[in-house]
Every structure is written in structure tokens, then in C-alpha cells.
Amino acid sequence: MSNSEKYNQTLEFLKGLHSDEIEAGIVLGTGLGGLVAEMNVQVEIPYRDIPHFPISTVESHEGTLVFGTIGNKKVVAMKGRFHFYEGYTMQEITYPIRIMKLLGAKSVFLSNASGSLNLQYKKADVVLIHDHINLQTSNPLIGKNDHGMGPRFPDMSRPYDADYIHKAWKIAKHENIRIHKGVYVAVNGPNLETRAEYKFLRIIGADIVGMSTVPEVIVARQMNMRVFALSLVTDECDPTDLKEVEFADILRVAKEAEPSLTKILTELIVSED
Q: Fewest CB atoms less than 10 Å from the CB: which of 17, 22, 64, 240?
């Protein structure tokens, strides 16, 4: 089956449940599904019911696609994303981003949890991602290019929307939320890094490290979507004083700090022109 046939089957199924054209897509990362509480939810669909959608295997990702509104903005939100380490291809990971675009979304808002390499960034701080380093070992654009989706060699000189970053910074400062602007480095995972790896990642210019987001950004930019991404620091990665980290601790920090991230995203989406 061709990609276009898959897209059409997915779209036909989704539009049969929710026919409104979408203005923005949202991807909610590890422990960060609370934004849905701010939505006027119209339809919520398990991934397993959607033709050609992968199924999230990470315990903290609920695995549903949610249609509704935030303010007067028509949005679709992923409660849980897909990762390369789950065994999916990069094309499978980013399939929902392509569907968002085909549903009408002109912008995508991404969130994730990360470890801090910049030691000024502390647990529960929010980081506005203004650039990234991709160390993942595949790319969602590998293979035959579908010119209907965008160019073979999309420009990545400014992948993250400067206007969104500016607005989000002002929102955070007004709400007294600890915030930074930083560079995100994407690695395969799922293991956390060694002391030497953390030191290396800091040397090459990264402020935070995670295992997601970058493939979605690449595909969104290929399709000329505006991109905004922010990260919640859930652990501190000081190679000179590295502590063992349990996944439960990451989830706990994410849950405690989630209101800050939700506040920024909600106000930013509502304020969008």
C-alpha cells in the first residue's frame, strides 16, 4: 500500500469522527498529558483504533488522539508520542505529524521531558528549544521523497519559530516560571547516558538531552509548518556528580512541574493570530 493510500484511509476514518479543519497540532511528551484538561474535548480516539497509527508502548504515554478546542483554536493533541527506541521506523514515528498537516494544521506545538547538561538548568525548569543537534541514527526523510509533502532537502536554518519563542518567554516571565532558551540534543535511548557521554554532549553545544522531538520537527518543517517546542527538565546530568535516576523520579518531577508547561502552551496557543 502506498503512503498516499495510507494517509487517505487515516483521514477518512478521522474525518468520520471529527469533520472540522484543524488549526494546530500538539504533541504531549512524558508525563505531560495534563494540557488536555484545558481543552474543550470533542472526540478522543485510542491510537489502536486509528488505521496505520503506531501504538505507544511507553507506560507514561496514554496513547490517544484528542480533538477539541483551546480558546477558539481548533486543535488535535497526541497524548503520548512514539520513539525510535520503541522499534518504530522514523516514518512511523512522524506519521501523526503528516496527518496533522493533512487535517489542516499550520502549526505544531511539541513538548518533552529532558535531562539538563547546562548546570544552570535545574529540575522543573522549562526550556524553550531554539535549536537542536540530531544524533539519532536515522532520519524520517530517508527514502523516496514525496514531493507533495515538501522538498527533498528542507532548510533547517531556523527550525523553531522565533515569534512563538518570544511570546512564550513573555508568558513565562509574567507567570514567574523559571525558563531558559536552549539547544536540545536528540539521542536514540532508551538508556540514560554515561558520565563521558554527558560531558561530550555538553562540549558539542547541547543544553538538554532527550530521545524524541527532532524527527517530528524535521517532518513539520519539510511541510512548512510553524514549530514550537519546549522541554521540562526532569533530571540534572552533572558528570562530576552523577546520581542514579529512576524513571519514576522523572515522572514525578514532570507531574509536579506540568502546570508551568501547560500554562505556557495554553496561553501561547490561545494568543496565536
A: 240
Q: Nearest CA to 264 among 230, 240, 233, 226?
A: 230
Task: Cite the DSSP H helix spans in the chain.
Answer: 3-17, 90-93, 95-102, 162-174, 195-203, 214-222, 247-271
Distance from chain centroid for Cα 170 = 21
CA 156/CA 228 separation, integer angstroms? 14
Distance (Å, rounded) from C-alpha 56 to C-alpha 46? 10
Query: Helix (H, G, I), strand (E, B), or coil: what is residue 169?
Result: helix
Beta carbons of 83 and 40 less than 8 angstroms apart: no
DSSP letter assigned to residue 212: S
| pLDDT tens digits for range 132-154 | 999 999 999 999 999 999 999 99
Asked whether 156 and 215 are in contact (CB, 8 A), the reply is no
Q: What is the pLDDT of residue 273?
A: 59
Q: What is the DSSP string of 70-102?
A: ETTEEEEEEES---GGGT--HHHHTHHHHHHHH
User: How far apart are alpha carbons 37 and 23 in whole angstroms?
Assistant: 19
Max CA separation in the chain (angstroms): 55
d(CA 68, CA 22): 9
